[in-house]
Every structure is written in structure tokens, then in C-alpha cells.
Write a structure and sequence with these properties.
heterodimer, A: about 425 residues, alpha+beta, Rossmann fold, Elongation Factor Tu (Ef-tu), domain 3, 3 domains, 8-stranded antiparallel sheet, 23 strands, globular, B: about 325 residues, alpha/beta, 2 domains, 6-stranded mixed sheet, 4-stranded antiparallel sheet, 9 helices, 12 strands
Chain lengths: ~425, ~325
């Protein structure tokens, strides 16, 4: 592969790694960074000094990914960390979620921005409860591409039969939970420690003719490139420079935001929700440039033909794709806070750029992330996942999370602490 | 009106990073009532100024710019800072560590102690003076280990303290910048950028930079394995970092990879005198940005984390 150094990356891929304590997740990430020459000499020197201090014979690549003093003392990773590397054709952002306590919370957080997940399985141990949990969560949060990496192949003598059995077991389970039908799943045998089948083929597994891990990453589609999507533009900020010295700007009214999905072109008929005002796109601006059209993930400013009273929290959609805002939603919620959910209290729901007060009208059931069983429940504690119905004070224009992440996701905020206490995915 | 007939092309990585940063800046403007943009004249904050232009023009920035000046900054950078703020026509607030020293809130252990970490005190004083509820900064997660887990919107308590175990989970792009009076959010729009991304963006947007980023001749000495600039003229006419008795002053061709307080920012040997050459040099460097040039991070494995807990940016 090329180094991290060629300056022209065509695209960006966000992925996450799922694994528990001993299945080599940190080593895998360390190896990817090391083999892509992202680790520079001084970091390596510091790592080998620390490895020596701990009495290790070789440099421990997992040291790269445990960042905080508290973690180094306890030898565990306690929070999601973000790492970067680049191949010259692509920039990568890795969300590294720890495998310990608070796992569900951290994994949901990491998964929320990932388009691909690497699920690590220890070749000696096969599909475990934790594998099922990781897979369910990846599925719940809607990660499109799953790479099942059977690690530590060196410890099973690079045996193909062991690998095949694990793949078959996993596939059977993935079908059971609907993962196999909905997502793109790929399998790969690796040894993160030896660096086999990550970037290089070391010749130990010639029976495997598929792509290396890096080849899979290089070819995985970036987000939003696979499906045709409806246009959704939550207004973040309204620009009205009426006090400007430039008199021409006195009537300027720019609606600023990021296109969360779909495309828009000058002349398109649009509706502003929740009020339902209709107009046409007069101009699309990005910095000093005027664009004819713009697409998903571009931050732009829209100017409309008509003077419409629009503010932060409104949503601009194409008139043909408008939906009725709703005051009642059903969602899968992952609880993130040490303080359990209270059905007596009201919370704030932040959905796109809009906030609404909300109350729980019913906890329908809780999902056991290990057995995937549904259980009746009247409470929700940290790391729990449940299907919940909310009543909203303000109408929101929502889509189902399964068809549109940006307009199907929300966070729950506790007004007394301002903490983010829940993550919701609208059914 | 358009119809969806084809799948979309992905944005290039720079377009994606730019768009994300603009989005974050607009979220700060939309959610916070009195934000401020920390601007030092350094390359990262110059990128953020460019991003703010793209985010808010033709309007004015919905926040002033502020620099916490240690009084030991390179004159070239301070002049550049003032010039850039004037060109943009935005308000620049400068608060000085030397004023905190006069008030007695900053006490140096010795006259030549680095003032860098004391910026935290002056920053907190300025936050209180103006009632800022959010400070926008140019920190990046790839700079240092302790930053890899930093949120895009990072919560600080009334004492400006960062508690790594008590940060708000950050999901999707639903940022939570809410705070109670006295508390503070630090917002980092270029969290996901690497040093290389910053240089590529500077190259693409043709951004002007202070001259000390480019190769130039400078008087230096070798101290503890680092190149240390000496006899540096300050804005007020004083000289910072005088050479110590017995040190050999060498005139070398150097440039700075990071720019901050003189006492803790070391230059690297370089003949890169254009952005193009700097991009190439960054690509082939074998030393991390801070490893090479930040004397303050080398004290211990956890020194950045310690300073952040104490309210450092």
C-alpha cells in the first residue's frame, strides 16, 4: 500500500471496531496504523519505552489506543476514541469502542457515525454471546457493512476448517436476527498480531483468496452513495445581514444548514415544515460560490424565491417529498445515563436542529442484548435498550431511522443537568 | 425539479471535513447565546477563520475573536493576528497573561517559567468577564493521545475543568451544547482533521500564514536535544529567551510546525519555503507534530491530560 502521505484522498470512510478485552481489537487498530505508516518514530519510541517498563518483550501496539492516564493505570479503555489514518486514496476515521463495562452505550455511540463495522471473533472461541451482542447493536444502529474478522488464526494453525465453521455459525445467527438479509456481510481470517491479511498476505492462509482487510476497507462504499434518498435540510441558522453597509444585502435571507440526505437544485419546489410554506430554490451558496445543485453532507446556504418566515429548527424538504409533522413517536432507545429513565418526568428531545419537550407514554418492552429476548419492563437503566412511545410538545417531521438516519435519530437530554441521557431511533 | 436517477458521488475528504466544520460552527451559533472564537494567528485557527467565513458570510460572524496572549509570542504571529482580524472586519479581544500576573492570579515559579499553562487562568478570567458560554478552538484529536477521546462539544464545569470520565455521549451529528450559567462548552470544529488535512486545506484555500511557518534563518541553541530559539524580539521591544552563558548560538534554517508561546515551541530544521513544500515535508516526516516541537508535552506521558483537566484548552 501507499503511505499515509499521498495528499489526494478521494473519499472518507468512518468505521468502528467491535470486540471484547482479549480478542485483539487494540492490536488490530495498532497494526492498521503501523502498517499504513501512520505511527511516527517518536510515538513508537515512547511505546517501546512503556512496553519495556511493563516487562514486555515486543512493542505492544495496543498501547496506541489507550489514551488516558486513568486507563493506563487500570489497563482498560473506558471511552470511545477516534483514530485517523489515510492511504492516499481514502481517509479513515476509526471509532474505537471499548469492550468493557458500559459497552452498549459506547458501542451505540461509536456506531452512530460508522458506515462499516469490523466484528472481531477469536478463532479459538468462535461465536460468543458478545459477538451476538455486537452484531445486534450494529444492526440496530443501522451499520450498512459488516466485516467479520476471525482473529488469532495463528493460534489455530491457520486452519481453514475452524474458520469455515465460525463463518457458518455466524451466518446462521445473522439470518436469525435479520442481519444477513439487511446488510452486506463479509468474512476474513486474520492474525492482527502477526499482521497477516490486514495489509499484507504473509502466505500462511493461501486457502483464502478473498480481499485483505485493507482492500475491503478501500472498496467499501462511503455513506449516502448507495441509495437514492429524499431531500432533507434542517435549518441551522438564518443569515440576515440587514445592518450591512452593503444595501443590496438588506433583503438577503439565507437559510444555512447541512443537507442531511438527497439532492437539491436551483428551481426545485420546496416546502418549509412544520408550517408548510411553499417556495422555490432561488440560489444555493457555498462560501463565495453559487452552485446549481448540492448533495448530501454539503453545508450550504439556500435562498428562496419568496419571503418566508423560517427559523432554526425548521426543515426544508422538496414539496413532492413532504411529510406531515407528528406529535407522537415510537423509537428504540438506548439509555446512556447512570440516572434511570423516569416515566414521570419530561425530557428534551433533540431531533435534527429542533428541540421539543417529551414525555414517555409507554415502555413497550426491553431487549436483552445478550439473548435478544423481549421483556416487559417499567424502567430503563444505563445500557438498556427498549422500545418506547413518546408524546411530544412540538411537532417534528420525522422519517423512520431505517430509511433515513439523520431524520430518524434523536438524543434525549435531561434538562436539570443538560446531560445527553438517551439515544433514540425512530421506528 | 430534479429526480433521483443516479447514486451520489461521495464528497472528497477535504470537502467532507470542511462541511462538518461549517456544520459545527453553525451549531454553536444556533445553540449558544454568547460564544467566542479563540484565535491565535496559528495555522489551525486560521483554518477556522476561513471556515467561519464559509459558514456565516455574507453576514458577520456571530461571535468575536479572542486571543489569550502570554506576552511571549512571536512578533510575526501577533502582527499577522491583528492584520487578519482587521481584514475580516471582526472584533478581536486580547487578554494577557501579564495582566493576570499583575492581578496576582498568575504567579510564576521563576521569571523564565513557561507561561503557556498559565493561559488557562487568563482564559477563565476572560470567560467570566464577558460571560462567554462557549469557546471555539482549533484543537485536533490527532495532536495528542489525551485528545483522541475529546468530544466535538466538550463540557467544562465552573472551574473550567475537563472531566474525562464525565463527558456527554456524542451521537450522530446531534451535538449538545447546552450549559448552565457559569459552565462552559469548548467546541472543536476541526477535531477530525489531521496535520496533513490542515496543510492541504491551507493549500487548497490559498490561506496566508505568518512568515515563521516557512523556512527562515534564526538564532538558536541546542538545549536537551531540542532546537531552542534565543534572543527573540517581542512586540513590546523586549527580548525573550536570552541565550544562557556558555551556550553556542547557531544561525540555522528552520521553520515552525506549531506556533505558540515562545518558551515551549521549538522549530524544526527545514528548507520548506512554500506551502507545497511543507505539504511534502509533512508527508515524509517521521516525527509527530507535537513530539518535534512542543517542549511542554514532553514532560510526562500524561502532561497534556493533566493540563486539560486544569482547564487548558
Amino acid at each position: 500500500m501507499t503511505t499515509n502521505h499521498t495528499p489526494h484522498n478521494d473519499s472518507l470512510l468512518r468505521f468502528m471496531t467491535c470486540g471484547s478485552v482479549d480478542d485483539g481489537k487494540s492490536t488490530l487498530i495498532g497494526r492498521l496504523l503501523f502498517d499504513s505508516k501512520t505511527i511516527l518514530a517518536d510515538t513508537l519510541t515512547q511505546m517501546s519505552r512503556t512496553s519495556e517498563k511493563r516487562g514486555l518483550s515486543a512493542v505492544d501496539l495496543s498501547l496506541l489506543t489507550d489514551g488516558l492516564q486513568a486507563e493506563r493505570e487500570q489497563g482498560i479503555t473506558i471511552d470511545v476514541a477516534y483514530r485517523y489514518f489515510s492511504t492516499g486514496t481514502r481517509k479513515y476515521i476509526i471509532a474505537d469502542a471499548p469492550g468493557h463495562e458500559q459497552y452498549t452505550r459506547n458501542m451505540v455511540t461509536a456506531a452512530s457515525t460508522a458506515n462499516l463495522a469490523i466484528i472481531l471473533i477469536d478463532a479459538r472461541r468462535g461465536v460468543l454471546t458478545q459477538t451476538r451482542r455486537h452484531s445486534y447493536l450494529a444492526h440496530l444502529v443501522g451499520i450498512q457493512h459488516i466485516v467479520v474478522a476471525v482473529n488469532k488464526m495463528d493460534l489455530v494453525n491457520y486452519d481453514q476448517a475452524s474458520y469455515d465453521k465460525i463463518c457458518a455459525d455466524y451466518l446462521a445467527f445473522a439470518k436469525e436476527i435479520g442481519l444477513a438479509q439487511a446488510r452486506d456481510i463479509r468474512f476474513i481470517p486474520i492474525s492482527a498480531l502477526a499482521g497477516d491479511m490486514l495489509v499484507d498476505r504473509l502466505g500462511n492462509m493461501n486457502w483464502y483468496q478473498g480481499a485483505t482487510l485493507l482492500e475491503i476497507l478501500e472498496k467499501a462504499p462511503a455513506a449516502h452513495t448507495e441509495n437514492q434518498e429524499v431531500f432533507r435540510f434542517p435549518v441551522q441558522f438564518v443569515c440576515r445581514p440587514h445592518a450591512s453597509a452593503d444595501a443590496e444585502l438588506h433583503d438577503y435571507r439565507g437559510f444555512m444548514g447541512r443537507i442531511e440526505s438527497g439532492e437539491i437544485a436551483v428551481g426545485d419546489a420546496v416546502t418549509v415544515l412544520p408550517n408548510g410554506y411553499q417556495s422555490k430554490v432561488k440560489a444555493i451558496q457555498l462560501g463565495e460560490a453559487n452552485l446549481n445543485s448540492a448533495k448530501t453532507e454539503q453545508s450550504v446556504t439556500l435562498l428562496l424565491e419568496d419571503e418566508i418566515d423560517t427559523s432554526r429548527g425548521d426543515m426544508i424538504v422538496k414539496t413532492s417529498e413532504a411529510k406531515e409533522p407528528v406529535k407522537q413517536i415510537d423509537a428504540f432507545v438506548c439509555w446512556l445515563s447512570e440516572t434511570p429513565l423516569s416515566t414521570a418526568r419530561s425530557y428534551i428531545i433533540r431531533h435534527t436542529t429542533r428541540e421539543s419537550k417529551a414525555k414517555v407514554s409507554a415502555i413497550q418492552y426491553k431487549v436483552d442484548v445478550n439473548t435478544l429476548e423481549q421483556q416487559a419492563s417499567s424502567d430503563l437503566k444505563m445500557n438498556d435498550i427498549a422500545r418506547i412511545s413518546f408524546k411530544l410538545a412540538q411537532a417534528l417531521m420525522v422519517d423512520s431511522y431505517s430509511v433515513n438516519h439523520a431524520t430518524g435519530a434523536f438524543i434525549v437530554i435531561d434538562e436539570s443537568t443538560n446531560n445527553t441521557v438517551g439515544a433514540g431511533m425512530i421506528v | 425539479m430534479t429526480t433521483h436517477t443516479s447514486k451520489q458521488q461521495a464528497l472528497s475528504h477535504l470537502d467532507w471535513l470542511e462541511s462538518e466544520a461549517i456544520y459545527i460552527l453553525r451549531e454553536v451559533a444556533g445553540q449558544c447565546s454568547n460564544p467566542v472564537l479563540l484565535f491565535s494567528g496559528g495555522k489551525d485557527s486560521l483554518c477556522i477563520l476561513r471556515l467561519a467565513e464559509k459558514a456565516f458570510r455574507p453576514g458577520r460572524f456571530p461571535f468575536p475573536l479572542m486571543h489569550i496572549d502570554t506576552g511571549h509570542n512571536y512578533k510575526e504571529v501577533i502582527d499577522f493576528r491583528d492584520q487578519r482580524a482587521a481584514e475580516l472586519g471582526e472584533r478581536l479581544i486580547v487578554r494577557s497573561v501579564e495582566d493576570s500576573m499583575q492581578r496576582g492570579t498568575v504567579v510564576l515559579k521563576s521569571a523564565d517559567e513557561s507561561r503557556n499553562k498559565h493561559q488557562s487562568v487568563t482564559l477563565l478570567e476572560a470567560i467570566e468577564e464577558f460571560g462567554f458560554d462557549c469557546c471555539i478552538g482549533g484543537a485536533r484529536r490527532d495532536e495528542e493521545k489525551a485528545r483522541a477521546k475529546e468530544r466535538i462539544m466538550s463540557f467544562r464545569d465552573e472551574f473550567g475543568q475537563w472531566d474525562p470520565k464525565n463527558q456527554r455521549p456524542e451521537l450522530w451529528n446531534l451535538y449538545n451544547a447546552r450549559s448552565h450559567k457559569g459552565e462552559n462548552i469548548r467546541a472543536f470544529p476541526i477535531s477530525n482533521w489531521t496535520e496533513m488535512d490542515v496543510w492541504q486545506y491551507i493549500e487548497r484555500e490559498k490561506l496566508a500564514l505568518p512568515s515563521i511557518y516557512f523556512a527562515h534563518q534564526r538564532d538558536v541553541v541546542m538545549r536537551g536535544g531540542s532546537i531552542v530559539p534565543v534572543n527573540v524580539p517581542l512586540v513590546n521591544g523586549d527580548i525573550a529567551n536570552p541565550a544562557k552563558a556558555g551556550e553556542d548560538i547557531i544561525n540555522m534554517q528552520v521553520r515552525f510546525r506549531t506556533v505558540g508561546d515562545i518558551s515551549c515551541t521549538a522549530p524544526v530544521l527545514s528548507d520548506a519555503d512554500s506551502i507545497e513544500k511543507i505539504v511534502l515535508e509533512t508527508a515524509t516526516s517521521t516525527i509527530t507534530e507535537r513530539g518535534a516541537t512542543r517542549l511542554d508535552d514532553q514532560t510526562s506521558d500524561a502532561s497534556m491530560e493533566q493540563r486539560k483537566k486544569e482547564g487548558y484548552f
